[in-house]
Amino acid sequence: MFEVELTARLKNYTETRAQILALPIESHFKLDYDDRYYDINGTLTQGDQEFRLRTKTNLDSGEAKHYLTFKDKAFEQVTRSKPEYETLVSDHYNTEQILFKLGYQKSAQYTKHCEIFNLKYHNASIEIALVQFDELADAFIEIETNTLDKAETDALFEKLYKLLEEIGLSKDQLTKEFYIDMIKAAQSE
Predict the structure, then answer these.
(1) Is 167 helix (H, G, I), strand (E, B) or coil?
(2) Whether the Cβ atoms of residue 24 and residue 120 lie closer than 8 Å to each other
(3) Where are the alpha helices (DSSP H) in the chain?
């Protein structure tokens, strides 16, 4: 699966949220993500790869789901979009114990607060997330879609750039910094 994603820093969270709400939204909800990253002696980080155990908690229903995700090296350098392989797991604790027994160590952990908006945009299923972290002053937006076919990624990026502009954001607000790196830097200050 190829995750086609734009991430940008927000200059005005409230204004951006209002622009999103003017779109034909199909679903809207709030999630907290507990993200835990794992590595073996930094080899995944050095290889521009990520291995994560995520718990998504729906703040309205309280329902929690757990996902194990591997992100391979970026296939697109401007946005750092990566091939992504994700599966639902039923038992967070035992999944983490398996990782530890295989030699992985937890390399980072943070909570990501998201307001999620789903919509169809030019025949593509798009997810927009307004993102905040306790450790960071800035808020972010993620606009993403997925495809099984790498040949479709350029056309999907064009749709995402058009949507970005439609909600009043510019390409100069895009960031290719990883949250994990920003949070580690903030925690070391």
Answers:
(1) coil
(2) yes
(3) 13-21, 43-46, 92-101, 153-166, 179-188
Is pTM beyond 0.70 here? yes
Residue ranges of alpha helices (H) inside 4-47 are 13-21, 43-46
> CA 122, CA 148: separation in Å to the nearest integer?
18
pLDDT in tens, 45-88: 999 999 999 999 999 999 999 999 999 999 988 888 999 999 99
Q: Which residue has the tokens 């390409």?
A: 171
CB 52 within 8 A of CB 72: no
Q: Which residues of 18-43 are buried (b: 16+ CB within 10 A; e: fewer)?
A: eebeebeeeeeeebebbbbbbbeeee
Spatial distance between the Cα atoms of 83 and 21, rounded to a whole number of angstroms? 29
Query: Are 27 and 118 contacting, i.e. CB atoms less than 8 angstroms apart?
Result: yes
d(CA 141, CA 147): 20
The first and second tokens of residue 153, run together, are 């990624």
Side-chain-facing half-sphere of 109: CA atoms under 13 Å? 7
Q: Residue 9, SS3?
A: strand
